[in-house]
Amino acid sequence: MFLKWLSKGIISSNGKRWKEIRRFSLMTLRNFGMGKRSIEDRVQEEARCLVEELRKTNASPCDPTFILGCAPCNVICSIIFQNRFDYKDQNFLNIMKVFDENFKILSSPWMQICNAFPALLEYFPGSTDKLFKNVAYVRSYILEKVKEHQASLDINNPRDFIDCFLIKMEQEKQNQQSEFTFENLKITVSDLFGAGTETTSTTLRYGLLLLLKHPEVIAKVQEEIDRVIGRHRSPCMQDKSHMPYTDAVVHEIQRYIDLLPTNVPHAVTRDVKFRNYFIPKGTTILISLTSVLHDDREFPNPEVFDPGHFLDESGNFKKSDYFMAFSAGKRVCAGEGLARMELFLFLTTILQKFNLKSVVDPKDIDTTPVANGFASVPPSYQLYFIPV
C-alpha cells in the first residue's frame, strides 16, 4: 500500500504527473495569495493567535514545541481546509502528534540505516510500522474532509485548495490520462500538510533556541522592530525590505541549522559525468545541502551562528547563491514563498510582543541537534515568554 503512495502527489512523483500537480499547486497557492483573503492575511491572523497562546503561559517556563507547531499547521489548514483549528481541538492535537512522531522517526539513526539497507525493514519493521500507520491516519482524515467538500462544493466559489482540486477533477473527468484523481488529491494535500508544518515549526523552535543563546542578537532585532514597525502595528512583508538585520537573522537561522541536510532523494534524468564519475540515467542521488550552507569560502566560520554572514559592510542585507535551505533547481520547495513569509512574520511578531529568557545561563545552552538524519532536530528546552 505504501509503495503505491510513493509515485503520487508532489514530493515523490516524477515526469508528467509531477509537472502537472506541481504547476497546479503553485498556481492555486498564488491565486489564494491574491484573493479576497490573502495568504499574508492568514499568516498575520495566526501570528496574533500565536501571541495569545504564548500569553497564556503567564511568563512561566514552557517548552515551545507544541505552540510553535500549531501556528504553521493552522496556516496550511486555512489554505487547504478553509478554516483554522482551535489549539485545543482534538483532531488538531492528533495530527500535530502524528507529524511530530514521524519527523523524529525519519530523523533517527535507525531510519538512516534502513535507507542504506532497505531489506532490514522486512526483519525489523519496528518504528516504520508506526510511520506507515501515522501516514495512513493523516490521509484517512484528509479523505473525510474531501468527502465533506464534495457534498458542499460550489464550482463558482472555491473556498480552499481542496475545492480547487475537485473543480479541476470535474473539468478533466473525460480525460482518461488525467492526473487529477482522488488518490493524487489525497496525497498532494498530505504532502502540503506535512511538509508545510513540521519543517517551519522546527525552524522556528531551533531559531528561538539560537536567539536564547545569543541575547545580543535579540536586542538588535528588537531595536529594528521598534524603529520600523513599533509595538502596536502587526508586522507585514513590506517591512522586510526595511529590516536588513532581521532578514539576515532569519537566513542565518536556516543556514546554521541545516534543517534537511540531504534534502529529499532526487534522480538524474539522463546519463551524467560528474567529477570523473559516471551516473546512469534514473540513478537515485542524495544532495548535500550542508556542503553549500556550511561552505567556509562563502561563510567564514560556518559553525558559528553569525547574522553577519548575510550583511555587507554597510549593514545592508547581502544575498548569497550558497543559501539553498529550500534546495535548488526545478524541484525547489514548492512552499518556499509561504515558509519565508511565516518565518519572518512569526519571529518578528514574537519578538515584538515578548522578551525571551532562558531557564539556564545562555553560555550553557547546547544547540547541537539531537538527531541529524533526514532532518536536524533541536534538543528540548524551556524558556520564558515575558510580555513587553
What would your notes on this structure say?
A hairpin with a 3-residue loop joins strand 6 (371-372) and strand 7 (376-377). The protein has helices spanning 2-5, 15-33, 39-55, 65-80, 90-106, 109-116, 120-123, 126-151, 161-171, 182-213, 215-228, 244-257, 290-293, 336-353; strands at residues 266-267, 272-274, 277-279, 284-285, 354-358, 371-372, 376-377, 383-387. With 388 residues, it is mainly α. The relative contact order is 0.15. The strands form four sheets. The protein has a two-stranded antiparallel ribbon with strand order 1-4. A two-stranded antiparallel sheet has the order 2-3. A two-stranded antiparallel sheet has the order 5-8. The protein has one domain (2-387): Cytochrome P450 (Cytochrome p450, Orthogonal Bundle), CATH 1.10.630. GO terms for molecular function: heme binding; iron ion binding; oxidoreductase activity, acting on paired donors, with incorporation or reduction of molecular oxygen, reduced flavin or flavoprotein as one donor, and incorporation of one atom of oxygen. Belongs to the cytochrome P450 family. Its cofactor is heme.
